[in-house]
Amino acid sequence: MSLAPRPRRWKILLAFAVIYFVWGSTFLAIRVGVREVPPFLLAGIRFFAAGIILYIWMRASGTASPTRREWASASVLAVLIFVLDYGLLFWAERRVPSGIAAVMMATIPAFMALAEILILRTQKLTLRLGFALLVGLAGVAVLVSRSVSFGDAPIDTSGAIALVVAAIGWSLASALTRKLPLPESKVMSSGSQMLAGGVLLILTSAMLGEFRGFHAQAVSSRPWLALAYLIVAGSILGFTAYVWLLHHESPTKVGTYAYVNPVVAVLVGYFLGGEALGARTVVGTLLVLVSVVVITTTPKEAKSAGLTQETQLAEP
Fold first, then answer.
1. pLDDT(220) > 50
2. pLDDT at res. 313
3. How many Cα neighbours within 13 Å face the side chain of 76?
4. CB 208 within 8 A of CB 40
5. CA dihedral 180, 181, 183, 187 (to 10 degrees)
6. Residues 116-134: what's their mean pLDDT?
7. pLDDT at 306 over 60
8. In whole angstroms, how far apart are CA 293 and each of 106, 151, 154, 234?
9. Is 106 exposed, middle or buried (0-12, 13-18, 19+ CB in 10 A)?
10. pTM score
11. What are the helix (H) ranges across the chain?
C-alpha cells in the first residue's frame, strides 16, 4: 500500500491518542449508559446516529450510495457485528466490569486466527500460533474460573459467555467480509453497516421488550452524556482517526490499538469507574495480551490484502 505524504508528527500522535485512549475509554462509557438505558436500545441509538452521519457525509462528498446487493451484504454483516457482537457487549456490561469486557473482547484475534485456520485456510496451525491460542484460552479461564482462587471473584458466567459469543460473531463477520460485495469506499461501507446495524439493534430491542417500562425522561444526564461520547468520540472521531492513520502509517503499527485498548479500559475502569483491579484481572489481562501480540505478529503464509479493511470497525 502506498502511503500518502507524511503529515506533521503531532497529527500522527493525536490520531494514535484517539484510537488508543478514546476507544479504550468507551468501554466505561458503555457501562455508564447501560445502567439506566436498555443495552440493545442504547447500542441501536449509538450506531444508527453514527451511521446516518457517516452516510450523509459520504453522500455530500459525492460518494455513490450502496447498491441493493451492497446493502444486503451490509445487513448480513450488521447482524453479526452489531446485533451479535455489540449487542451482546452492551448486554454483558450490565454484568461484567468494563475493563474485563475489553479484555474478553481482545480475544477477537484468536477467533480470527481460528477462522483463518479452519474456514478460510489462509493460515496454518503452527507451534507459535498453537501456543498463542492456548495462552489466550488460559487468560479467559483465569477470568471466569470458580475453582481457582485469586483473591477476587470470577466474572459473571452469563456475561462471560455473551462476550465470547460476541467475539466469535466478529470473527465470522471478518471471514464473510472477504466474500461479500461492499462499497469501495471504506467510510461508506462502514457507515452503511452502522446504519443497518442501528436499525436491526432497535428492532431487536423492541422484540426483547426493552421498550416496556422504559421512560427516557426518567433517565439521568450521565447515560445521555455517555451515549453522546460513544457516538461522537467513539464512532465518528475514532473511526475517522483510524481510517486517516491507515493512509499514513503501516497497518501493523495502526493495529497496535488492539494491545493498548484493553489496558486503557482496565485502568479507566479502575480510576474513573471504581472497578476492582485484583490479581485475577491482572493475570487474565496479561495472558490475553500476550496471546494477541503473538497472533497479530505471526507472519501469514497466505496473507489476505483485505484484512486491515475488515477490521476497521473493531472499536468498542
1. yes
2. 47
3. 16
4. yes
5. 10
6. 86
7. no
8. 10, 27, 24, 23
9. buried
10. 0.90
11. 9-17, 23-34, 39-60, 68-78, 87-92, 98-105, 108-115, 127-144, 157-177, 186-207, 221-229, 238-246, 251-254, 257-271, 279-296, 307-310
Residue 87 near residue 39, CB atoms below 8 Å: yes
Distance CA(142)–CA(121), nearest Å, equals 30
pLDDT digits (tens, 9 = 90+) for 152-177: 788 999 999 999 999 999 888 887 88
* Residue corresponding to grid cell 438505558: 37
For the chain, the first-to-last Cα distance in angstroms comes to: 26
Q: How far apart are CA 66 and CA 64, in angstroms?
A: 6
Q: Give the burial string for 111-133 (b: 16+ CB within 10 Å, else e).
A: bbbbbbbeeeebbeeeeebeebb
* pLDDT tens track for 176-212: 887 899 999 989 999 999 999 999 999 999 999 999 9
- Give CA angle at 179 (173, 184), nearest 5°: 95
CA distance 175 to 89: 20
Q: Is the pLDDT of residue 98 over 60?
A: yes
Phi, psi of 237 (to 5 degrees): -65, -45
